[in-house]
Amino acid sequence: MGEGATALEVLDDEYFQDPHRFHAELREQSAARQVVLHRGLKVWLVGRYDEARFVLADPRFSKEFSGFEELFDKHHVGEGDRARFDQSLVQHMLNSDPPNHTRLRKLVSKAFTARRVEQLRPRIQQITDELLDAVAGQAEVDLVDALAFPLPITVICELLDVPMDDRDDFRRWSNILVGGDEPAAVEEAGGAMAAFLSRLVEHKRANPGDDIFSALVHATDDNDRLDHTELVSMAFLLLIAGHETTVNLIANGVHNLLLHPEQLDKLRSDPTLLPGAIEEFLRYEGPVNQATFRYTTEDVVVGDVTIPAGEIVLASLIAANRDERRFPDAESFDITRPSGGHLAFGHGVHYCVGAPLARLEGQIAVGALLDRYDIGLAAAPETLRWRSSTLMRGLYTLPISLSARGSR
């Protein structure tokens, strides 16, 4: 790890390229440890399964956005300015506690039930087939650009009826906002994203359609309605969470199949293993590194550590998912492992509302890819670069070789 402004370890690029080594040491030594993020924010990192699950569910770890501003200033130990998000992007259900969280989630959860998501299967299959048709005849492609990114962004943009013309700008803003870029870049991207979404809210208010976002703009529940800022924030959350996690689910999963050819062979020989394989993708190299920020509202005992009141806490999902105390032989990638129990989608009241959609997109994308093509890794594994994000665990690119299978 790099040297920081304090004696605490800094989660720098060395960490992002191989966080699992650090997480194994963290789990072995204590339930939680103070570290400094690469932009200079001092936090407590929790890496054991039981303790992470506890942090994700206990109400003494607050997510109310209004409480963070002072804490960010208090715990910022770097020399540079910290990035400040546009305030209209942060007032969503992931940054709120009950009862406000309950109110916000109730208005969106009905759109993402397993039954409603299953109705999307034909369209998701169609989009996937079109993307795979587009790379037919190419010997090598970047799987992120060819499939992992365009599939979920197309699906979520169609669900919310967001113009696809803005997809490239949206991807650039999204990468900056979740990637820990320079503060000036974050503020510029946040402002552009907020302005874009604000215009979209006004358009939906004047021109409602048969889509989830129109329903949110005009939704009432016991005479409750989201105000303009809440709508902008909710659109931001649904668009970011609705594609970022699935991009990484698909790319990380295929990456690990290629690194473990015996597992790829198992999946090819028995496609019924696919749902379980998706769960192992999520456990072994999930799309989210650390869950979003929480802070302690009082002193809280976490395992063998007492975290004082007023401290920022991160539960590492990918660390918890490799805890030997919960998953025997946790460092092994095994698509036949009994599924369930992982924390890739979180836990508690903030459990990912889009989990059924992500699972379905992952199954369709990976299943169709393996059905149509023989694939191989088209770059030395050590040359692949992971995004420098405490939130997202994903590759910048995944070059793969393609050849059409002999029979379909």
What would you note in describing this structure?
The protein is an alpha+beta fold and 408 residues long. The chain has one domain (9-404): Cytochrome p450 (Orthogonal Bundle), CATH 1.10.630.10. It is built from 17 helices and eleven strands. The protein has helices at residues 13-17, 19-29, 49-57, 68-75, 100-109, 114-118, 121-134, 143-148, 150-160, 167-178, 183-206, 212-218, 228-259, 261-269, 274-284, 317-320, 355-372; strands at residues 9-11, 32-37, 42-46, 61-62, 140-142, 294-296, 300-302, 305-307, 312-315, 373-377, 399-404. The strands form three sheets. A six-stranded mixed sheet has the order 1-2-3-9-6-4. Strand 7 (300-302) and strand 8 form a beta hairpin. It is globular, with a radius of gyration of 21 Å.
> How are the strands ordered across the major sheet?
1-2-3-9-6-4
Range of helix content:
40-55%
Backbone CA Rg: 21 Å
Mean pLDDT: 90
What is the element string, with H for helices and E for strands? EHHEEHEHHHHEHHHHHHHHEEEEHHEE
Name the CATH superfamily assignment.
Cytochrome P450
Gross CATH architecture: Orthogonal Bundle
Class from helix and strand fractions: alpha+beta
Taken together, the total number of domains comes to 1
- CATH topology type: Cytochrome p450
Bulk shape? globular
Low-confidence stretches: 1-6
Percentage of residues in strands: 5-15%
How far from one another are the termini?
Answer: 48 Å
Number of helices: 17
Q: What's the CATH class label?
A: Mainly Alpha
Count the strands? 11
